[in-house]
Every structure is written in structure tokens, then in C-alpha cells.
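Worked example

This section walks through a single chain of length 213. The input is the sequence exactly as stored; nothing has been trimmed or padded.
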Amino acid sequence: VLIYSQYNTSAGGRTAISFGTLMNSNDLALHLLFGLPLLGYIITDPNAKKFTRALALLTTLPVLGIIVRTGSRAGLLALGCLVLALFWMAPLMGKVKLVIIGVIAAVIFVSTAPSGVLERYRTMWSEDTDESTDEALASAASRKRLFQESVRQTLLHPIFGVGAGNFRVAFARMREAEGNYHHRYVVSHNSYTQVSSEMGIPGFLIFCALLVW
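Given that input, the structure is written out below as C-alpha cells.
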């Protein structure tokens, strides 16, 4: 948060750090999400000191604000899953506190977030958005096509997949078969279908088992 306060920048309304790998808004959101479970645990821990819990809460609010302002749709989905997991594991009073904090945070961030960022989030469920979100719509369409192709490759190669690290090659060949030779080698942007398309359904089940374990 301190680094962000000194070196933040904005491109198209999306916030990021002005140097290093965190110039990518999605990476910034992901790195901040890594620390939120610890803060959430401290806030809901009845045995923690009041000062420690208060400090964790004061840290959580600006972190949430930065995540929302990145305009990262994957970050928003991960944040939603994280909140549900914390709610499920928290004691009764912890659940009440999470609900109160969530409502307050949602009101604050919706009312203060840049309009461009809010429009970007809207592309997750609607294409009826402002013209300024053309890039976001194109990005959403690209992600959707990558997801569909990763599912198709899973169905075509259900046992062994296309090979570790080879989805980008399979996708490139598909684009070239359509006559498009000016493209980038890209991943599926979905961890689960990336694994299933490259390692097959058995590899996908092992991956999920490891996550649960």
C-alpha cells in the first residue's frame, strides 16, 4: 500500500504501479490478493489482540480499493471466491463482521471507482456498455474464444491433452487454419482449462485433487 501511494499510475482508468512487473494491472491485483487471506484470518480471529485486528482491518480497506481500481476481472472473481471462503470458515461473529465490512466496502468503492473501471467490470455479464470500453469488450471476446478453444482441445484430446505448454501451439494452428498468420502465441487465461487441454481430463482431476488437498 505504501509503495502504491508513492508510485501509482493509471492507464485507461486502470490503476497500476509505475515500474516493474506490477505495471500490469492484473498482476498487481493478483499480488495483493495473495495477502488478503492472512488479513481476513486476523480480522475474524477472536483470539487476536484488538490492536492487531484493527490494524489488519485498516490495511484491508485500501488493499481492496486498489484491487477494485485495477479493473482486473479475474481479480474481482478471485476476490469474490476469497470472500466466500473466508465467510464459510469464519465463526458466527466473524461472518457478521465480514458482511458489514463487505457492504461498507462495496458502497465506498462503487461510488469512488473510475467510471471506466466500472464499465470494464460490466463487460463480464453485458456487452451493452459505453463506447469507451471497446478495448475491454475486445479483451472479453478474446478471453471467451480462448476458453472455448481450450474446452474444444480438451474434448479432442481427453486422455493426454495436447501436451504440457502446447495449448498456445494448438491455438496458433487453429488461427492459421482460418488464414490468420498474424497472431500471438497465447495461453487460455483459465488455469483449469489450461491444464485440461494440455494434460487431459486425468491431469485435470489430479490438478483439482492437489488444490483440494
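What to look for: The chain has nine helices and two strands.
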